[in-house]
């Protein structure tokens, strides 16, 4: 199992990651950062999100998650030190108990409804702030990096 299992997401200020399940999230402003951070790593993606991708993600090994698969088994099959869970909300939920870090980039939107960051019921997570990546100060795009406190 990787030492670092990192959730990476762009969220609205009210905690949504998409307006609906098959939205192509072209409102996000941190794609370059996403690319830089995930390049060379394994990324785990849910089937709804996979279907929204216009092309595969070059330079990254993609594992497509579907509900019949066991998250633990998927993680056990990854040999690298670090991997990313790249969404969407159901996939983040299914992997929530294994996450070691959350990389969250708030965006200047309020959707009020849609796909939540964790779209299924999960156990509470306790986080410790670790770092702020000032990706685009002018646009106010900052990535908050948290470590999950394991009890
Ligand atoms: N803002 C961001 O950073 C960001 C990041 C990623 C995605 N997104 C957006 O998020 C949206 C998709 O999110 P999503 O949560 O709908 O999908 P998703 O997580 O991409 O895919 C759903 C996954 O959950 C599985 N699943 C497990 N239990 C389930 C249950 N009880 N009900 C339904 N599915 C279950 C599905 O399995 P099956 O394959 O067997 O159905 C599938 O693998 C898209 O619009 C995408 O663009 C945004």
Structure description:
There is one protein chain. The protein contains four helices and nine strands, in the order E-E-H-E-H-E-H-E-H-E-E-E-E. The chain is of the alpha/beta class and 151 residues long. The protein is globular and about 40 Å long.
| SSE pattern, N- to C-terminal | EEHEHEHEHEEEE
CATH superfamily: Dihydrofolate Reductase, subunit A
Stated plainly, the CATH topology is called Dihydrofolate Reductase, subunit A
How are strands sequenced across the largest beta sheet?
4-3-5-1-6-9-8
* Main beta-sheet annotation: 7 strands, mixed
Number of H/I helices: 4
User: What Rg, in angstroms, do the CA atoms define?
Assistant: 14 Å
Compact overview of the structure:
The protein is α/β, with parallel strands linked by helices and 151 residues long. The protein has helices at 31-38, 47-52, 71-76, 89-94, and strands spanning 4-12, 16-18, 42-46, 61-65, 82-85, 101-107, 115-116, 127-136, 141-148.
Give keywords.
151 residues; alpha/beta; two-stranded antiparallel sheet; 4 helices; globular; binds NADP nicotinamide-adenine-dinucleotide phosphate
Secondary-structure topology with pairs:
Layout: E1 4-12, E2 16-18, H1 31-38, E3 42-46, H2 47-52, E4 61-65, H3 71-76, E5 82-85, H4 89-94, E6 101-107, E7 115-116, E8 127-136, E9 141-148
Parallel strand pairs: 1-5, 1-6, 3-4, 3-5
Antiparallel strand pairs: 2-7, 6-9, 8-9
The chain binds NADP nicotinamide-adenine-dinucleotide phosphate.
NADP nicotinamide-adenine-dinucleotide phosphate is lined by residues 9-10, 17-18, 21-23, 25, 28, 46-49, 52, 65-67, 86-91, 94, 115, 119-120.
